[in-house]
Amino acid sequence: MDQIYFDYGATTPCDPLVVKAMEPYFFERFGNASSPHESGRTARKALEDSREILARFLGSQRDEIIFTSGATESNNQAVFGAARAQRKKGNHIIISKIEHHSVFEPVEFLKSHGYEVSEIDVDENGVVDLKALKAAVKPQTILIAVIHANNEIGSLQPISQIGAITQAKHIPFLVDAVQTVGHIPVDVDELNADFLSLAAHKFYGPKGVGALYARRGTPLARHLLGGDQERGWRASTQNVAGVVGLAKAIELCEQNMAKEAKQQAQLRDRLLAEVPQRIQGVKINGHRQERLSNNAHFSFAGVKGEALLMALDRKGIAASMGSACTSGAIKPSRILKAIGLSNDLALGSLRITLGRWTTTEHIDRLLEELPLIIERLRTHG
Ligand code: PLP
After folding, report:
1. pLDDT digits (tens, 9 = 90+) for 130-144
2. Which pLDDT belongs to residue 328?
3. Which of 95, 100, 291 to mutate to test the pocket of ligand 1 (most atoms within 8 A of CB)?
4. What residues flank ligand 1, with Cβ below 6 Å?
């Protein structure tokens, strides 16, 4: 890759070993996993072996895994499915203020249809206020959703502690673990998660495939209707090649995760230390310690984030302002406003996310180019 890629939080390249594992499932083993014949049985076996691999990684049962088209679908299914299944119990939902759009928007939709929503504040480090969350619980609360690590600023949340609250109150708990699965150990029992969403393309697997973990017995209504796939939980012919890729990507992460996290944390810490040394008027966003090992997030006073991204791009460096979906939007990010940033700082943000192929030389290049670009933008706009 000629380009220096610092946008692993948006998506990762597919590991060549993942591509290799997927290849047979496009032609030789192309069958429909629901077909009873040999070809179908081969596909079915690959699907179920993959389910086993993912379940093992998450510490779950196989029948608690629903393969989906990605985390957006998983989150939609959990939110709408939990709401529909608990109509009689209540209509109150609690979410953190820093949820991804794929949780936030379905919840907003329910709000516009009569549901009551409590949005829990985060502190200046982007960590959810546990006391406020506990205080918000009502008898009619039917779902609590808190992201494992925020995709923009990388702050890790006290999920196990929140899970202890939700468990004690018997309220289904949705954890969006898109940014953590494949990067740190994620165990559904340790987290006390009832629903957990993930997407393969965030951990060197293919795009368009993900999963929803749904704990046995948790109230959930079907979301996609049609066929009986995924034990009736999700209609549509399974993406067998994609699922095989997801499982292979998980296996590779299991082997490499600890080493990679350590390496990336060292590179990240260099950025967190050296960017403020080289540039005036910079703020580091997110928790200093309790953050994703591959995420560094800055705000530069008096700089427009879009112009900064374009200037970096011209130098062959790909980064982002926050989530891929909000890049290009002029509005200050909802997440950065939640941690109390001014519009100026929120609009002058830069997210650097590292990954499997990030090198020390890439960091050197960024540390060289960034001060020059910031100075030029501050002088000439
Ligand atoms: N949740 C988080 C935290 C994310 O970062 C993303 C993607 O950026 C999603 C959910 C949605 O994932 P997908 O676009 O693969 O559906």
Report:
1. 999 999 999 999 999
2. 53
3. 100
4. 70-72, 100, 102, 147, 151, 176, 178-179, 199, 201, 210, 323-324
Which pLDDT score is estimated for 239? 98
Ligand 1 atom closest to the CA of 74, numbered from 1: 16
- Is the backbone of residue 75 left (phi > 0), alpha (psi -120 to 50) or beta? alpha
Same domain assignment for residues 248 and 263: no
- Assess whether 197 and 232 both reside in one domain: yes
Nearest residue (CA) to ligand 1, atom 10: 71
Is the distance from CB of 282 to CB of 275 less than 8 angstroms?
A: yes
Report the CATH number that the domain containing residue 96 is assigned in CATH.
3.40.640.10
Tell me, yes or no, whether 216 and 355 share the same domain.
no
**Ligand 1 atom with the shortest distance to the CA of 69:** 16
pLDDT-based confidence at 381, cuts 50/70/90?
A: confident
* 301 phi/psi in degrees, rounded to 5: -65, 140
Catalytic machinery residues:
325
381: in domain: no
pTM: 0.97
State whether 113 and 208 are in the same domain.
Answer: yes
Q: How many CB atoms lie within 10 A of CB 19?
A: 15
